[in-house]
């Protein structure tokens, strides 16, 4: 079972809309305040990456149920330039040292599952899930 | 577990709310240590605080509870910074272990056997600044009363310097001729270094060929810190200056060589710039200081002198070396 909704990211204000969407869904699913803050921080980070590096893209929020456990899935998809060195952006200290925020390692820490697919010149697709415990 | 910590926190907080004593604050700080050791993130602490307050003072205005939610949001990135720090610390530890292994490999790789020649007492010491040594002592001894010594210093420190030094070692291994003369040895190693190292790596090297029968040391230098000779008869030190470019600068470089004859109790002192470039509060340690240290122990064995000079220089610099330190003394006995 899944139920989805999405926000197009084009301006910085769309980041706020994506956060709002994520928070509403997280709240409805029963996530506590701290986890809501973690989920929205992850959404913020992914949406900002789209806004800064791809120019435009989409944040999609899905409700998941697996083996009777509910969860939230964030999909960040863009048709931007792609990430040339994925190992580097997943390294601690790479993005944070430049003051860019939590970076992708941060998103990975905030969520339970994290998958990234990127092709140069075609775009990037990131999927991050958090389960309700 | 979380619930247990939460109720403990509530208890400690309640104590403090009843009585704002230093004692109760101290208990709170001790509890925070436990939280840190269990990797509790700051946002969880605030959430726990909010929950405890809600149980203790349920009729607070809504604005207070909102303020905690805001604070939780503020703390998420601090929590991430903390986790990142923990993972970086772990990586640092992994690197430290790796460096230790590499240093062991280097020690085995660069080990050399001190020659034993009639009438020659040799003392030596090579201490790296960090784990890996960018200085190197290499002996070639092939019997027949000859021995060669190379003392080299890679410009730079640590791992890159150590990797570069392995190459010098293999160059020396391939020569393996104790009767070879310095100009030949230096040109050969120069070609190897020039070919295999990038443009920013240079090596300085002193090479000496000693003949036991005559007591003659033939020496050459590739931009290395000049060696010195101590004349027992006059009690004076002289610099053994000889021309030669650093290794790795030009494949065409040629190396001058000179001879010096050692008489009884004369000493040749070979060193790297880590010995002469030490700094004290008063300024650089100059040659004069080193000469005086050697003179104070001139009647001891070469190894005793070397160790004494090192100990004294370390003491003068408050136990802080500024570079790899290598010192060799040849003493004619």
Q: What's this model, at a glance?
A:
Chain B: Keywords: Hydrolase. The complex is a heterodimer of chains A (133) and B (333). In chain A, 39% of the residues lie in helices and 33% in strands.
Fraction of residues in helix of chain B: 40-55%
Query: Which fold name is given in CATH as the topology of chain A?
Result: Heat Shock Protein 90
Spatial extent as radius of gyration of chain B = 31 Å
Order of helices and strands of chain A: EHHEEHHEE
Point out poorly predicted stretches of chain A. Answer: none
What is the helix content of chain A? 25-40%
What is the mean pLDDT of chain A?
A: 91
CATH architecture of chain A: 2-Layer Sandwich
Average pLDDT across residues of chain B? 91
Q: Could you give the order of the helices and strands of chain B?
A: HHHHEEEHHEEEEEEHEEHHE
The structural domain count of chain A equals 1
Describe the structure.
Chain B: Keywords: Hydrolase. Chain B: This is PP2C family protein-serine/threonine phosphatase. Chain B: It comes from Planomicrobium okeanokoites. Chain B: Pfam families: RsbU_N (PF08673), SpoIIE (PF07228). The complex is a heterodimer of chains A (133) and B (333). Chain A has a single domain (2-131), classed as Histidine kinase-like ATPase, C-terminal domain (Heat Shock Protein 90, 2-Layer Sandwich). In chain A, 39% of the residues lie in helices and 33% in strands. Chain A has helices at residues 12-29, 33-54, 86-89, 103-110; strands spanning 2-9, 57-66, 69-78, 113-119, 123-131. In chain A, helix 1 packs antiparallel against helix 2 (33-54). With 333 residues, chain B is an alpha+beta fold. Helix content of chain B is 47%, strand content 21%. Chain B is built from nine helices and twelve strands. In chain B, a hairpin with a 2-residue loop joins strand 10 (279-280) and strand 11. Chain B is elongated, with a radius of gyration of 31 Å. The N and C termini of chain B lie far apart (75 Å). Chain A binds chain B through residues 32-34, 37-38, 40-41, 92-93, 96, 101-102, 105-106, 109-110, and chain B through 43-44, 47, 50, 69, 72-73, 76-77, 80-81, 83-84, 87-88, 91.
């Amino acid at each position: 079972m899944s139920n989805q909704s999405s926000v197009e990211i084009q301006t910085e204000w769309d980041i706020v809309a994506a956060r709002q969407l994520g928070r509403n869904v997280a709240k409805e699913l029963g996530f506590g305040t701290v986890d809501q803050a973690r989920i929205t921080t992850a959404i913020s980070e992914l949406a900002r990456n789209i806004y800064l590096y791809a120019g435009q893209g989409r944040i999609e929020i899905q409700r998941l149920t697996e083996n009777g456990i509910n969860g939230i899935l964030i999909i960040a998809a863009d048709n931007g330039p792609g990430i040339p060195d994925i190992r580097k952006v997943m390294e601690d200290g790479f993005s944070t040292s430049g003051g860019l925020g939590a970076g992708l390692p941060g998103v990975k820490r905030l969520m339970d599952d994290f998958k990234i697919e990127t092709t140069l010149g075609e775009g990037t697709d990131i999927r991050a899930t958090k389960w309700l415990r | 577990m979380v619930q247990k910590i939460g109720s403990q926190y509530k208890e400690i907080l309640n104590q403090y709310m009843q009585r704002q004593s230093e004692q109760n604050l101290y208990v709170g700080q001790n509890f925070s240590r436990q939280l840190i050791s269990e990797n509790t993130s700051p946002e969880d602490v605030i959430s726990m605080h909010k929950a405890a307050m809600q149980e203790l003072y349920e009729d607070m205005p809504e604005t207070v509870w909102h303020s905690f939610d805001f604070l939780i949001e503020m703390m998420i990135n601090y929590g991430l910074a903390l986790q990142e720090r923990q993972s970086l610390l772990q990586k640092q530890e992994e690197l430290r272990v790796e460096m230790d292994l590499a240093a062991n490999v280097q020690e085995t790789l660069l080990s050399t056997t001190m020659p034993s020649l009639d009438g020659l007492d040799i003392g030596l010491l090579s201490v790296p600044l960090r784990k890996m040594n960018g200085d190197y002592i290499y002996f070639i001894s092939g019997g027949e009363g000859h021995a060669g010594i190379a003392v080299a210093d890679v410009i730079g420190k640590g791992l890159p310097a150590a990797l570069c030094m392995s190459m010098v070692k293999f160059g020396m291994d391939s020569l393996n001729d104790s009767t070879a003369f310095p100009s030949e040895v230096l040109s050969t190693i120069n070609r190897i270094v020039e070919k295999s190292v990038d443009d920013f790596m240079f090596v300085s090297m002193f090479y000496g060929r000693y003949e036991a029968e005559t007591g003659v040391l033939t020496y050459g230098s590739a931009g290395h810190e000049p060696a010195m000779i101590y004349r027992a008869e006059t009690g004076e030190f002289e610099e053994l200056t000889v021309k030669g470019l650093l290794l790795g600068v030009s494949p065409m470089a040629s190396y001058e060589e000179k001879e010096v004859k050692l008489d009884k109790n004369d000493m040749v002192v070979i060193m790297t710039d880590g010995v002469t470039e030490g700094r004290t509060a008063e300024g650089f340690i100059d040659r004069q200081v080193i000469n005086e240290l050697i003179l104070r122990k001139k009647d001891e064995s070469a190894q005793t002198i070397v160790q004494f000079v090192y100990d004294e220089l370390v003491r003068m610099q408050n136990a802080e070396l500024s570079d790899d330190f290598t010192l060799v003394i040849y003493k004619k006995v």
